[in-house]
Write a structure and sequence with these properties.
Layout: H1 2-26, H2 31-36, H3 38-48, E1 54-66, E2 86-89, E3 99-105, E4 112-118, E5 124-131, E6 138-143, E7 157-171, H4 173-206, H5 209-212, H6 215-233, H7 237-248, H8 252-276, H9 280-288, H10 293-327, H11 334-344, H12 348-376
Antiparallel strand pairs: 1-7, 2-3, 3-6, 4-5, 4-7
Pfam families: BPD_transp_1
Subcellular location: Cell membrane
Keywords: Cell membrane, Membrane, Transmembrane, Transmembrane helix, Transport
């Protein structure tokens, strides 16, 4: 026996070690890379930790220079200016995808700089954002875009906008947009939880074994609704949001429907288990005096499960606020959709504002739901 136990334990240990080794390999874990790519992470974390809450009016000043692509497509600049706000390039023209250096002199000091291309047909294409120093200077490597050649001898131009904050601080447009989308998320979660409760509460009694699992018909009803709840719970909210999004076009309404379907299954499961865990005494007392089944449920079951039901509903509203954030990433509307757009546009400060709003709301919802559940118990 000791030898058999030793062999069994050794085999189990070997399986566990093998599972962890395989897990490490399939995840392609590279912990040293965390430190090698630390500069990238520092830049993102700095942006996320500095949300865009307040702003000032911005004064924009534009300086431009002709820059033909490719060379020979249009006349080049004869000479660069030597005084005043000006741009200087290391070459006067370039082939598509060729890199060159762009310098700005005597621009607005300590200001954000937006470098963009102005095409011959007057369309614009943003290239890079950077910052001037205290003397109004910047230097930036730029790659020539394979853009439209000169039209009627008019070349493409390099334009630089310097954005200088002026006036008093005021709430930023980002903060207003984040608050608007956060309200959408909160009330989308509230409405989906309400609709799901209205549907799940009566169905949960049909999925409770102590209520319906009596006889062939009752057992059939029990297994039918139990299977329905288990089946619907197996679908991830993201999958449901994608389905409704392609069905109804993306927005808050498909997100609301996806949350509602998933919440019906989740609350139905929780409600049915609460019904099954009631004290059978009041039910048996009502049945002993000949009370009808509906009266038995009304007076023997419902009073016992109401505190649990309310607690589950509040808790699930809290959960749905978090889930609706994720649903927004597939076009389900609300703060998640705004966060997705900000990340895709590389607007890290705006994304940081949205993340901080999510953290604050989730914390507040968690505190509120915990306090309400505490008072109900």
């Amino acid at each position: 026996m000791p030898l058999t136990r030793l062999v069994r334990n050794t085999f189990i240990t070997a399986l566990v070690i093998a599972a962890f080794v395989i897990s490490y390999r399939v995840t392609e874990a590279d912990f040293p890379r965390l430190f090698r790519d630390l500069p990238k992470g520092r830049q993102l974390l700095t942006a996320f930790l500095t949300p865009e809450l307040f702003t000032r009016d911005v004064e924009t000043r534009t300086v431009s220079i002709a820059f033909p692509i490719p060379c020979g497509a249009a006349p080049e600049e004869e000479a660069f200016p030597s005084e005043g706000p000006r741009l200087v390039t290391s070459v006067k023209c370039a082939a598509p995808l060729e890199k060159f250096t762009l310098e700005g002199f005597d621009l607005q000091p300590s200001s954000e700089v937006v470098i963009r291309w102005r095409l011959p047909d007057d369309r614009t294409m943003t290239a890079i954002r950077t910052q001037t120093d205290s003397k109004g200077y910047f230097s930036q490597e730029v790659q020539a875009r394979p853009i439209q050649a000169a039209v009627d001898g008019i070349p493409s131009r390099l334009e630089v906008d310097t954005l200088t904050p002026v006036g008093r601080l005021k709430p930023s447009q980002t903060l207003k947009d984040v608050l608007d989308n956060m309200f959408v998320t909160i009330f989308m979660a509230l409405l989906s939880t309400t609709f799901a409760t209205i549907i799940a509460a009566p169905l949960s009694f049909l999925a409770a074994g102590n209520i319906t699992r009596k006889g062939c018909l009752g057992s059939g009803v029990y297994y039918l609704f139990r299977s329905f709840f288990n089946l619907m719970r197996s679908y991830d909210p993201l999958v449901m949001a994608t389905i409704f999004g392609f069905w109804l076009s993306f927005g808050p309404f498909p997100g609301f429907l996806a949350l509602t379907v998933v919440t019906i299954a989740s609350l139905g499961k929780l409600f049915s288990e609460a019904v099954e865990n009631i004290d059978p005494g009041p039910v048996e007392a009502l049945q002993s005096v000949g009370a009808a089944p509906l009266h038995t449920v009304r007076y023997g079951v419902v009073p016992q499960v109401i505190p649990d039901f309310v607690s589950y509903i509040i808790y699930h509203w809290d959960i749905n606020v978090r889930i609706s954030t994720i649903i927004g990433f597939v076009g389900g509307g609300g703060i998640g959709y705004y966060l997705n757009l900000s990340i895709n546009d590389f607007k890290w400060n705006q994304a940081g504002t949205a993340i901080w709003a999510i953290v604050i709301v989730v914390w507040a919802m968690d505190f509120l739901s915990a306090e309400i559940r505490k008072r109900l118990n």
